[in-house]
Amino acid sequence: MFSVSSLKDEENEITKSASVSSKSTSKTALWEEEKMGKQLLLWRLRRCMLLLCVCMFAVSGCSADKKEEASKQESFSEAEEKKIRIGISFDSFVIERWLRDRDVFVATAQNLGAEVNVQNANGDVAEQVSQIEYLIDKKMDVITIVAIDAGALSDVVRKAQNAGIRVICYDRLIRNAGADLYISFDNRMVGTLMGQALAASLPDGGEIFQIQGSSSDYNVDQVREGFEEALKGSGITIAYTTFCDNWLAELAFDAVSEGLKKNGGKVDGIMCGNDDLAGQAIRALTENKMAGKIPVVAQDAELSACQRIVEGTQTMTVYKSVDKEASAAAKLAVALAKGEDITDASSQIPVTETIDDGSARIPYYALEPIAVTKENMDEVIIDGGFHLREDVYLNID
User: Fold this and answer.
1) Which of 6, 120, 132, 369 is the most exposed place for a label (fewest CB within 10 A)?
2) 3-state secondary structure of 200
3) Could you give the CA distance from residue 183 to residue 146 in angstroms, rounded to a whole number?
4) CATH T-level fold of 84-179+323-368
5) The pTM is what?
6) Is 354 helix (H, G, I), strand (E, B) or coil?
7) What does the pLDDT look like over 357-397, one tens digit per residue?
8) Domain 187-320+372-392, CATH 3.40.50.2300 — does that match?
């Protein structure tokens, strides 16, 4: 095989021979010189051809490398383009549980290869509409919504669907929107469990306060229906009822204080829309030296509520496995993004129920709530891994 260096050596030898021959002036010497000159020219030509081949090979190699790199970049761009994109808009993170919902939802979706864009409306309906429109502009495949106002988002939901985006109502139903999925706990059952707990605590009946959540949250209506149904025939009457707009816990303190004033300082039990409200209601009872004497029921199984239950100032809470709800929602969001039929019995998480949103029946995935009291705290909350024992019994042990 020829190389540039070997050709250079041969050229040097020929040049040296030609130099020696040039010293002779005979006819034979002249002929030899002419022959060597031609040979030198031939070797130089071969050298140039070899250098040309080397250059062409190098250029070809660079071109191949560039094509390979371009191909890799194109494949990466296509992968990024095909990556599932999910947007989620939260009411706010004032309520403790939403932080946990966010973390589980995001982690599950990411494990399935999706990207998640998290938005927080901080309790502002107009801001939530704006955030959903932003997610539409960003061309999300699915938008998941924890609605602030059940009746204020139908137009923006339809706008998303018209853009080819699937919409999930998370935990709270959006009315008259025709969303692609509603996932939540059975809210009527949540209310039923609260009513049953109060009825068991007040076997002789009595007068109670009903401190509900936001009036714009459709879940509140469902919980109330289940609660009031469970009280029928119990001898319990609702002496005072009110709503706490935007689920502001401080309003529960004011509500209990006002209820006591209106009812002559008397109350036999209190139903609260969630544990956050219950904390403030119990604070009002404490100021009136009634804490621990009046049964209080609520929902969400927040750590503070579990602590109050084992301490004796709250009677029960309704446990709703946030991990199960958020995980299922993320999996269903990915399935919808892939165009799968989530209502098919053979799907990974088959959605077999429907619910009336006011304008249409939409797919509904319902999870089962569990009543938690001092008696089953360890079994449900601690053994279930929702809270640590040392945290729940912090003020007891």
Assistant:
1) 6
2) helix
3) 10
4) Rossmann fold (3.40.50)
5) 0.76
6) strand
7) 999 999 999 999 999 999 999 999 999 999 999 999 999 86
8) yes
